[in-house]
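Re: the 232-residue chain
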Amino acid sequence: MIVSVHVADIGVRSVRSVLRAYPRPDGTPGLRWAQTTLTGVITSGPPRLRPGRATLIASWQDDSALDRFLAEDPLAQRLADGWRVRLQPLRASGDWDPMPMEIDPGAAGDEEDGPVAVLTLGHLRLRRALPFLRANSRAAGRAAADPSMLASLAMARPPRFVGTFSLWRSTSAMRRYAYGAALPEHKEAVSEHRAKSFHHEAAFLRFRPYGAQGALDGQEPGALESLGCGTH
């Protein structure tokens, strides 16, 4: 099992059509789950929407299935001028029934302090939307200011799907943000969620990024190659 994240600036009208036409497992060989989303910038305060930007998150049987999608699917062509990354699952917390995680016993875990990507996925309880946004704003502001975070996205598919993607220079840097005593904002948000859940269902997923292509906000794949995450 692998996961891919695709991001592209395609225009407001195209984003609307992409949200309606995301790929489905019954029509895409090797696809296990997919979601297309609106995309924003992770920052202090409410996420800033990028109206013409779309994101696709997808889970695949293997690299060959993703390669076939990239070569043959019209949606892949619409997103081809953006940025994408391949992700190997390392750790999962919580539950996301549409995308069961399979952790390869041979996957490099915390022992290897290389680049790491994090996905958060949530099915929002609408009555908890305001507390969620307040808690998320504090944590997001701290993350956005961290020089170890190489790339990030806020994702949403109204009315309930919310998520984030972040790419970090190292596992140790990500852990300092998430669990460090000097940076309590993320821990406070997690504690508030545990005390009274923001979501009907939520998952926090950690990955090893192993292939990137294209550019996102001016960041080229070469910046990832220098960290051991080359193109694929």
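DSSP finds seven helices and eight strands in the chain.
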